[in-house]
Amino acid sequence: MRKHLVLTLTLVVAGAGGVRAAELAKSQVDFFENKIRPILSSTCFKCHNAAEGKLKGDLALDTKEGTLKGGENGPAVVPGNPDKSLLIKAVSYKDPNLQMPPKGEKLSDAQIADLIAWVKMGAPDPRGGAMNAKYKGKSDAARQHWAYQPVKKPTPPVVKQSGWVQNPMDNFILAKLEEKGMKPNHPADRATLIRRVYFDLIGFPPTPAETQACVDDKSPDAFEKIVNKLLDSPHYGERWGRYWLDVARYADTRGQDNRRNDARYPYAWTYRDYVIKSFNDDKPYNKFVMEQIAADKLLTGTDTSSLAALGFLTLGERFAGNNNDIINDRIDVVTKGFLAMTVACARCHDHMFDPIPTKDYYSLHGVFNSCAEPKELPLIAKIDTSSAQYRNYLTERNRLINDLHHDADKQINDQLSEFRKKAGGYLMFAYSDGKAREAITDTYKLKRDVNQFVQNRVRRGGNADPVLGPWNELAQAWKKDEKTFPAEAAKIVAKVAANQPGKPGNSKKGAPPAPGKQPYNPMVAGMFKANPAPKTLTQAATYYTSLFSSVDIAWSAQVKAAEARGGFPAPLSNPYLEQIRNTPVIFTTSATLEIDELIALVPNGLQGRIRGKADSLSVLETTHPGAPARATILVDKPTATDSPVFLRGETANRGDTVPRRFLEILSGPNRQPFRAGSGRLELAQSIADPKNPLTARVMVNRLWLHHFGEGIIPTPDDFGTMSELPTHPEMLDYLASQFMENGWSIKKMHRLILLSATWQQSSDNNPHFAQIDPYNRFLWRANIRKLEFEAIRDSLLFIGGRLDLAVGGKPVNTTSEPYSYRRSVYGYIDRSAVPEVMTHFDFATPDAPSGRRYNTMVPQQALFMMNSPQVVDVARTLTSRPEFRNARTDDQRVAALYEVIYQRQPRPEEIKLGTEFASARVAIDPADYVQAPAMQPGKKGGQAQKKPQVAGKRGPRDIVNKDGKVVSRTALSGWEKYAQALLLANEASYVN
């Protein structure tokens, strides 16, 4: 269909009624199982569980019916309406009389947001009756499901119309069509095919010259040569690597994380580049699988570049640091990504539909719980230490680190100095409570931050602490009985004076305290010896203030001397002074601390400042061209451990411990436990095993999906019993067998598909066949497919002559001005704030594996195309292209724009419409009807320079682009408006 209709969009709003289980989308089931059921199980079932007879408030939340029915106060959930749902009201704590869970155990903001999102989407709930009902996943029918049966290579069927067949794949398609009384469409014309294959394989269109060369080539292998050329292009890996990044839930940030960590993954891009290179190199898929699970176990020689593959496991969301949620995410991406199995649904209970017991989930849990991420990430490329970029990076990094540590040192030293100057007051505060603390704070003029900093640390050493031990004993005696305190204090002071270095049990007089002996610090003992035994705790506090103040004077002098020379202070030479200085916090310099340890020491009110400086380091690693490439990896812990089953998913409710091993349904009941370290390598080998019935089928289906717009199985991430049956099961097994026999070569599979008569069909409609097969599941024609966001953006930049075709590298800004001209696959993806324009165009969520994007039509898409500065800039540059400038007539100008934008010649009626539009513009404003100056090549191979203003234009609204050049925002000329209209038409965003 080639109609110039500006994107007409429909917004579908879901009804308020609940969604029936039979109608649930797989994504809805996944959302419930991964987000909602764990909340209900861990926080609600204790009191609202019909299966166990726990019905507080007559409310049962362990069944769908009970949740909708509600309890004595009414329905717990009103599908589609969070405001009327008592469950949402209760967990939000907005009503003091209705707060669940009770006793201040409020859910996290993320959990509340998930519940609200669930209710908004209609509260989809796959549960049937009571929680103890028999699961279908345990049935023989589930175990005999086709996907779990061995792959067997069938013989291509015999067909009547054998002349149509170009390779064995066509036999399976044609046999099904003939069985239905249908026949395939005629072949697409050559220009349509070349546009289709360019978008399929590299994600942007051919040039007019490339299209014409293909059309003029009459050799039998003309199209095959184009396919091979594109498969050899470095841009092929960018196109197909992006599809895999959806499966790998790739992003450059952590998402929800604890507040001490920077949000960025500075080296996420090394995983992205690994994926792109793997596709370009046609890395065998089984090796691709194994490297992403266990690359560290497969290394040979000195090349460590494959370690970047482990980003597949490590670049997921961080769930506020919850380790079990992180492990769940890793189990999910491995099993969905490689096996199309929803194993994560067995976290709280045996899988409801598929033969995946909870014990299998915790077998994999043990694998990933036996792994850790090292603090020092490995280099994966040789550093050229002599390069100017690296030296500049190193200088800037050292400057940032030095600045961070000096700033942190100052904040911490200021805080400790404040403590030492008023040590008695802060010690009194730490051992008081209630109103007494308020009085002490006022009396000593204490600072809140310092109080918070020291109050939990001063008691850590107990009575045996060399410095604060005497204080602890005195404080206990005072609290016990103030009247007997003087007598008890005298005994304590005498004991302190007697127990000091030089007495029995110590090596020699004046030596530092012997390890384990814990004598009192001699300066503390001397302090009590030189002063009368305290009559009150306040008097003892004054002694400690004097002692710590003298130490602070010595340390402050040392700090100032270090600052003067631009360095960090060394410890005090006197070991006893140093021991007091390191009370209650051992701290000399932050240079030896990890960032998270450092932030924990900084006063709460100033932690944001230090985090900001730490973030600057992360930005440097992410963006500086001289920053070395590192891999975000997992390593095995020194000792591997098996995991217990968490009953109902509750970590405190533990069942049997299960061995680390592969899934029973894929390896049999007699499978052996993993024994090599964590078991990641054995897990990878089990998945990549040719005997595994799922791995090849799943990947072949993913390839098919992106070539035809629909998979042989429509749910690429779920081959379970809830998925649809394959439209061509024999063909799926044939392709899977071919895939493995051909060395797991993805490029060979591309060639098989692209050189088939099936893929090369026209997309023209057949009304009769459309009635028989309205969704074209049997492929009697080619599907018209909408381009993804990346392909739309890249093609716009390409036809505008601005696309930067450099391959690989650090992430860039691709969606807001001043935006980069690099391909969209290199765009920076913030998991917590995906650019709005990308979400409008159905970009895959980076929160979960996504083998297939949603395909929607919403008004925002049309608004973007009409108003985006990128689209406007492309419209300007199109009239600067030589094809347009060299045209002598309006007919030729229309044809030039069609060739560049649509890669075809316009039909007569389209030429007529175009020339009429141009003529109308001349009649309205003759000064507007001008040709733009020639586009000047930029540094990146064709970036347009600023266009001179034309007389009669409105005043410009200029903006600076990414290269620092000023981009004109003057009104579009007549021909530029016509070019923009062509860009807005469906044909620019769809492929026939």
- The computed structural class is mainly alpha
What percentage of residues falls in helices of 4 or more residues?
40-55%
Strand order of the largest sheet: 1-2
Task: Note the overall shape.
Answer: globular
Largest sheet: 2 strands, antiparallel
**Average pLDDT value?**
86
Count of separate DSSP helical elements: 41
Concise synopsis of the structure shown:
The protein has 41 helices and ten strands.
Commentary on this structure:
By secondary structure, the chain is mainly alpha-helical. It is about 45% helix and about 5% strand. The strands form 5 sheets. A two-stranded antiparallel ribbon has the order 1-2. Strands 3-4 form a two-stranded antiparallel sheet. Strand 5 (about 645) and strand 6 (about 655-660) form a beta hairpin. The longest helix is centred in the middle third of the chain and has 34 residues, at about 390-420.
Question: Helices and strands in order, then pairings?
Answer:
Layout: H1 26-44, E1 48-49, E2 54-55, H2 64-69, H3 86-92, H4 109-120, H5 140-143, H6 168-179, H7 190-201, H8 208-216, H9 222-231, H10 234-247, H11 268-280, H12 285-294, H13 311-314, H14 323-339, H15 358-369, E3 371-372, H16 388-421, H17 423-430, H18 435-444, H19 448-454, H20 469-480, H21 485-498, H22 522-530, H23 537-564, H24 575-581, H25 595-601, H26 607-623, E4 635-636, E5 643-646, E6 654-658, H27 664-667, H28 680-688, H29 695-708, H30 729-741, H31 746-754, H32 767-772, E7 785-786, H33 789-799, H34 836-840, H35 859-867, H36 869-878, H37 882-885, H38 890-902, H39 908-924, E8 959-960, E9 966-967, H40 974-984, H41 986-989, E10 990-991
Antiparallel strand pairs: 1-2, 3-4, 5-6, 7-10, 8-9
Helix pairs in contact: 1-4, 7-8, 7-9, 10-11, 12-28, 14-15, 16-19, 16-23, 16-26, 17-18, 17-23, 20-21, 21-22, 23-24, 29-30, 29-31, 33-36, 36-40, 38-39
